[in-house]
Amino acid sequence: MRASGAEPSGVSGGAKRKLESRRKLMEAARKLFAERGYHETRPQDISKAAGVGHGTFYLHFEDKLDCFLAFTDEAADELHEFVERHMALAHSLDEGIRELLIAVFEYSDKNPGVLGAALTDIDVLSTGGVGRRGPVDRWADVWAELMEKWKTTGEVSPDVDTRMAGYLIVGAIKQGGAYGVRRKLDRKKMIDSMTWLFVRALKK
Q1: Which residues, 6+ apart, have CB-to-CB distance to 187 below 8 Å?
Q2: Would you give the distance in Å from CA 171 to the centre of its chain?
Q3: Which of 54, 60, 87, 159 could form a disulfide with 47 if both were Cys (CB 3.0 to 4.6 A apart)?
Q4: Does 130 have pLDDT greater than 80?
């Protein structure tokens, strides 16, 4: 038995310090990417905000893009948890779209700026293939899978290209959500309007 809160005996001091420095770097990167965006954030800014030496950054990440991808992976996993909780409440196309939108806005409220930063298109950040899927791809896949399910129930037209529709919906939510925030639109009315538009586009 070990005291509550004690570190596992199998973890060395060096490993603990490495985990702690990565945690600090991830927290700093999250804050800076959300506030400044990818292009205005430098590795040295992240190191400084994390309170670690600049060299420590490169012990954990190959470069800024690698750090950004780690941030987007974390954000995508968090958003997926919100989506799963809300989708458990949905039993139709209309309810499913509405609950997904509510999940997205709830996540955004609790994590200001994170989703907007994480949905940056990875292809515009690198001239070479990064070999990893970003949140846009993961989220578009979620929509595509749901639309395939709704096709089997007859709620979505069989002619809908669900993969393309998934990307279109993600883009619409990102841009429409940003517009709603800027104009201070009523949240419920905005969700109702987006739900109506998506349902009309997908139904037979």
Answers
A1: 105, 180
A2: 13
A3: 54
A4: no
